[in-house]
């Protein structure tokens, strides 16, 4: 069966051509991601300011984070970025089965990330480092540790919400790909979803050294 011309594929009435539709979707995602940068930027600024103000206390608290779990999760997300990029490439070349499988793999890696993060949260609850609910640290830097963990749970919690949303989007794209919803002429939803997923991964790349590596590089 021959494919429809580019300007007749899944064209919404408000667009003149499918190319315009694709470019608008990509631009919309970039604008959305720019607002997300501002959102995370505010929290990262607060973390940077407090870390500069209380360097010893923040370093002491950071040394108690579960760096092994954090490192494994970093590898998991980097791998998911690879499978997501591969899925976009497969969609671009009209490989329906490969696209669906790679998207499914990306979603599963996202679930693995959340599972490991949940395990980490459970360990931190047992250790009594959850400010406002279960915080039992003592010592001269206890108040600084509380600030660190407030920011830690805020940053990783909001990031986890974004990962959860991303998993839903990727899973939806996997189902659509399996049903033949995309082709070499129309794979914009996969591409836009990929932009979102890479953004989520990029945020974690910033969080990982701030949370897990601070205070571990020195003597």
UniProtKB/TrEMBL annotation:
Family to which this protein belongs: Belongs to the cytochrome c oxidase subunit 3 family.
TM region(s), chain numbering: 27-47, 67-88, 100-119, 149-175, 195-215
Residue ranges annotated for the Heme-copper oxidase subunit III family profile domain, each copy included: 1-216
Membrane topology: Multi-pass membrane protein
PROSITE patterns xref list: COX3
Protein known as: Cytochrome c oxidase subunit 3
Keyword annotations of the record: Membrane, Transmembrane, Transmembrane helix
Superkingdom as given in the UniProt entry: Bacteria
Lineage of producing organism: Bacteria, Pseudomonadati, Pseudomonadota, Alphaproteobacteria, Rhodospirillales
Record localization: Cell membrane; Membrane
